[in-house]
């Protein structure tokens, strides 16, 4: 019927005269509409195929063959099936790295969420300047990570960093922030700082959608502030909370930049993502570049991220139905 | 009334704590080299020497970042706007599946994409090139952009489209003369984020454009300082401040578009 929308059901609009010519032209037009919509969607379809699927497949292929620097020069990598995966999972570094990844991810999202929620509740009571201050809070999230990463690195400098200066002022011994043992906690602090704004904004808009009448009714019943928070705010935020935490989980799993910039994945700050990055692109001491191992670790990370990603999609569908 | 002043005071303190690292960066960037290690709270030994060094040394990198950013915006819009229109207003076979793919695409770890791109670029000679970086950077923004366009264009009233249909306009003409002009704001939001992500990108730049010399973005200009034997904190922080300018400008000039993008649902980290 039209080029712009689907036909209405046949019963709705009976054409006055249905001669053969009309039926024919409608078929033609339908086909034209289909072609038109394909024309609009084709660039995206091709784009996804070439620039997403292709690199992904390439990554998987690399993890099944033994690639090294020579391979890139004169081709030819022997196919080894799951051999690389066996090596990677069997290596003594694998489980510690999985542990760091779990701690980094879970600690990041819970603290970001808790602080973000507290701030969102605080900013909800509109006071003077609150909108401006909220906008300023976005800054850490929008700055290039290389900027924040280098700044944190300098603040955590053991000899002249401002953090140790402040600790020294209170008579606390200097902390070796970026050493192998402490690296995980240091990158965690920086990453939480990066993630607070995102949580604040999402939760703030979640709070806005809770009807004020609920709070008024509870106040009339004599419920205190804490009680109102526990019985109204938290339950009402449940869908938003789930989505924020799941999204945060998927995004935190794949973090490379802040960790790499601050510590290059030293010691306890080595996660699956930085390990993969370092084996392929790191300027480490070992001149051996291990693309296949990097791809294998990347593929493992991909599977974990997509598992949680599917959970997210499923949750979102359920919430919107 | 009294209480709200208290709240403002607390709010200012919290914001100051949150933004302290940014203040610290600015502070160091204006401090003379010999005084940086004293860690004074204000740049008492004030100097602009580090900035002179930045504009002298980093100019090619800033220019590269600008080109890559604008190229990424262009590519993202060309791909995402028509696709958003099709998903919102036309009957696309498999549209629902495509929406699902777009959500999943945003969850692929960037390091995996980088490894794949690296191997492919190596074969076709796109390593260390601006077009290569633009393509890779656009993958950060395209899924987000399509979803934003789709969500907005769904809300365009049918009457507008019908009016265009009466004078027998083709879908292309409807798209160009009706839908696109109405989508001005959402296009701005998409462009801002696409530019900002490309400008800030570290991962693709450090893997696909490692040896690009002057054809490397500003994030690599800063990264070079980290690898140096003797880290020069003054020029490094000055470069970092300059690299932050687009972000600050966006927050000041385009705050409403930024807010629209953040709350649009599926947002990048």
Automatic annotation (TrEMBL), chain A:
Annotated GO biological process: transmembrane transport
Location in or out of the cell: Cell membrane
Family per similarity comment: Belongs to the binding-protein-dependent transport system permease family.
UniProt-listed CDD domains: TM_PBP2
InterPro entries, sorted: ABC_transporter_permease, MetI-like, MetI-like_sf
UniProt keyword annotations, A-Z: Cell membrane, Membrane, Sugar transport, Transmembrane, Transmembrane helix, Transport
GO cellular component: a single term: plasma membrane
Matching Gene3D superfamilies: MetI-like
Bilayer disposition of the protein: Multi-pass membrane protein
Protein name, as recorded: Multiple sugar transport system permease protein
TrEMBL record, chain B:
Cellular component terms (Gene Ontology): plasma membrane
Keywords on record: Cell membrane, Membrane, Sugar transport, Transmembrane, Transmembrane helix, Transport
GO BP: transmembrane transport
Taxonomy, superkingdom: Bacteria
TM regions (residue ranges): 5-26, 61-85, 97-121, 133-153, 174-199, 233-254
Boundaries of every ABC transmembrane type-1 domain copy: 62-254
Pfam families in alphabetical order: BPD_transp_1
Membrane disposition: Multi-pass membrane protein
Annotated InterPro entries: BP-dep_ABC_trans_perm, MetI-like, MetI-like_sf
Keyword Transmembrane tagged: yes
Protein localization: Cell membrane
Family: Belongs to the binding-protein-dependent transport system permease family.
UniProt protein name: Multiple sugar transport system permease protein
Organism, scientific name: Demequina lutea
């Amino acid at each position: 019927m039209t080029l712009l929308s689907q036909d209405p059901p046949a019963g709705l609009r009976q054409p006055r005269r249905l001669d053969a010519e009309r039926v024919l032209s409608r078929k033609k037009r339908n086909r034209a509409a289909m072609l038109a919509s394909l024309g609009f969607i084709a660039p995206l379809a091709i784009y996804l195929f070439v620039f997403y699927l292709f690199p992904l497949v390439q990554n998987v292929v690399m993890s099944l063959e033994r690639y090294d620097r020579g391979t890139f020069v004169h081709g030819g990598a022997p196919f080894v099936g799951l051999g690389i995966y066996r090596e990677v999972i069997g290596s003594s570094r694998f489980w510690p790295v999985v542990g760091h990844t779990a701690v980094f991810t879970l600690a990041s999202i819970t603290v970001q969420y808790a602080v973000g929620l507290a701030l969102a509740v605080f900013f909800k009571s509109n006071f003077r300047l609150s909108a401006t201050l909220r906008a300023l809070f976005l800054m850490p999230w929008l700055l290039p990570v290389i900027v924040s990463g280098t700044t944190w690195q300098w603040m955590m400098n053991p000899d002249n960093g401002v953090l140790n200066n402040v600790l020294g002022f209170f008579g606390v011994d200097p902390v070796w922030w970026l050493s192998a043992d402490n690296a995980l906690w240091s990158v965690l602090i920086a990453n939480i700082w990066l993630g607070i704004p995102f949580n604040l904004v999402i939760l703030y808009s979640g709070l806005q959608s809770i009807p004020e009448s609920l709070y008024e009714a509870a106040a009339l019943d004599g419920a205190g502030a804490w009680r109102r928070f526990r019985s109204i705010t938290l339950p009402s935020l449940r869908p938003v909370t789930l989505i924020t935490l799941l999204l945060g989980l998927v995004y935190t799993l794949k973090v490379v930049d802040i960790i790499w910039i601050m510590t290059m994945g030293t010691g306890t700050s080595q996660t699956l993502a930085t390990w993969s990055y370092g084996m392929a692109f790191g300027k480490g001491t070992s001149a051996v570049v291990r693309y296949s191992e990097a791809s294998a670790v990347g593929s493992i990370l991909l599977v974990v991220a997509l598992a949680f990603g599917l959970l997210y999609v499923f949750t979102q569908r359920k919430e919107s139905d | 009334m009294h209480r709200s002043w208290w709240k403002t005071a607390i709010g200012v303190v919290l914001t100051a704590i949150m933004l302290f690292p940014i203040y610290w960066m600015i502070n160091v960037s204006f401090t003379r080299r010999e005084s940086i290690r004293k860690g004074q709270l204000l740049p008492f030994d004030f100097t602009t020497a580090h900035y002179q060094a930045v504009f002298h040394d980093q100019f090619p990198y800033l220019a590269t970042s600008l080109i890559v950013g604008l190229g990424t915006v262009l590519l993202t819009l060309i791909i995402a706007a028509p696709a958003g229109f099709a998903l919102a207003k036309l009957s696309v076979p498999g549209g629902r599946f495509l929406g699902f793919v777009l959500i999943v695409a945003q969850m692929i770890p960037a390091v995996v994409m980088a490894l794949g791109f690296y191997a492919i670029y190596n074969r076709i000679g796109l390593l260390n090139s601006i077009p290569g970086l633009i393509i890779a950077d656009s993958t950060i923004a395209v899924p987000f952009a399509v979803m934003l366009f789709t969500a907005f264009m769904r809300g365009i009233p049918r009457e507008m489209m019908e009016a265009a249909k009466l004078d027998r306009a083709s879908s292309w003409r409807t798209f160009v003369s009706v839908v696109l002009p109405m989508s001005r704001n959402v296009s701005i939001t998409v462009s801002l984020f696409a530019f900002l992500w490309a400008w800030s990108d570290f991962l693709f730049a450090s893997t696909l454009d490692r040896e690009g010399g002057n054809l490397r973005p500003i994030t690599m200009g800063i990264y070079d300082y980290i690898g140096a034997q003797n880290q020069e904190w003054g020029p490094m922080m000055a470069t970092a401040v300059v690299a932050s300018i687009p972000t600050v400008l966006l927050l000041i000039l385009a705050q409403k578009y930024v807010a629209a993008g953040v709350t649009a649902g599926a947002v990048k980290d």
